[in-house]
Fold this sequence. Notes:
By secondary structure, this protein is an alpha+beta fold.
Amino acid sequence: MSKNHQDDSNEIKKLAIFEGEARIGEVMQGLQAIQLRPEDFTSPIALQMALSRIYEAVLKVLETGPRKRYVAEVRFTDSMGNNVVFAVDLGESPPPFSKDRVKARIVVELYEDE
């Protein structure tokens, strides 16, 4: 769903609203560096560098002690039919939801920055 919108400053905006789902869960703070990216598989040395980066991140987390953060993994299908997944940091305290799966509304606002 999308629509045009014009606010008081005569700035034209385009809005798109998507419906999706979010899965609420916990992650250990500091583990964001523990991920493999497509460029990590371009050569054997790139993979070794990625494994070293991951090893260092794990050691750092173990040194500082575990701290949990709550996140929502949000999933929706865009206007072109592509699956989109991203995370939303919900902080260190448990979110006020009774279930670990909730609905998500994604609002995209497009405008020109002058």
